[in-house]
Amino acid sequence: xxxxxxxxxxxxxxxxxxxxxxxxxxxxxxxxxxxxxxxxxxxxxxxxxxxxxxxxxxxxxxxxxxxxxxxxxxxxxxxxxxxxxxxxxxxxxxxxxxxxxxxxxxxxxxxxxxxxxxxxxxxxxxxxxxxxxxxxxxxxxxxxxxxxxxxxx
Length: 153
Prior knowledge:
Blueprint: H1 7-14, E1 19-25, E2 31-35, E3 39-41, E4 47-51, H2 57-68, E5 72-77, E6 83-94, H3 98-111, E7 119-130, H4 133-143
């Protein structure tokens, strides 16, 4: 089920200084995690990922994910060490048309005239979780109040 990303998270994802990691899995379930600066949020509030290399492991995994409705995850780390994980399902692979052409031009401007664009992937966000240490620790203490180190009692 799709969720709406809030404006703060959208701004963080669209910030070029934010580190973005895309995690996918192959047909055997073997994880593949890569840094991908081309992850952004489009005008519809969906994650958008530009794949430049047609035969990359990530592209193959996303094809598998769209065929079999398998989730992928995008991790982001901000300049001030806030961390989020967004899980979602690829719902569209754009390989031609206006959206593709716009991004194709942007890729060539960024990487040079020899750069190419394979696919514009649209990923429907389904879950977001802040993974910043202080937030995660607080969540765990609330969920499991009786578990902790003896030196804290």
